[in-house]
Amino acid sequence: MCGSVIIEGPNGRLTTAPADSTEEEIKARALGLLLVSDIRDRNKGTFGCAEYCAEEMERARIARAGYEVDLSSDGKKYIARWRKVN
To answer: Residues near 24 by Cβ (< 8 Å), separated by ≥ 6?
Structure first.
């Protein structure tokens, strides 16, 4: 394994995954990034590590029950967004 891929979420937030990751592994990393972004957006004005709290992650997961991860690529990085499931 050499290198990594960049995954960009809302508001320019970034995470990485190993370069040899499968699409499923990249989607899993993107899901985590999107959930943490939701938690950070909801908890603006607070300082701490709320995004690492299991209860906050579960609450964010429930709030996004009707959504899935939408991944696209600009050739340099993956771009992760929420997509409403019909």
So the answer is: none
Whole-number Cα distances in Å, 15 to 34, 45, 59: 10, 22, 21
Q: What's the pTM?
A: 0.85
- If you search the block for the tokens 């040899």, which residue do you land on? 20
- pLDDT at 52 (0 to 100): 65
What is the C-alpha to C-alpha distance for residues 40 and 9, in angstroms, rounded to an integer? 12
Q: Residues with Cβ < 8 Å from 15, sequence gap 6 or more?
A: 6, 7, 9, 29, 30, 32, 33
Residues of the chain under the 70 pLDDT cut = 1, 44-52
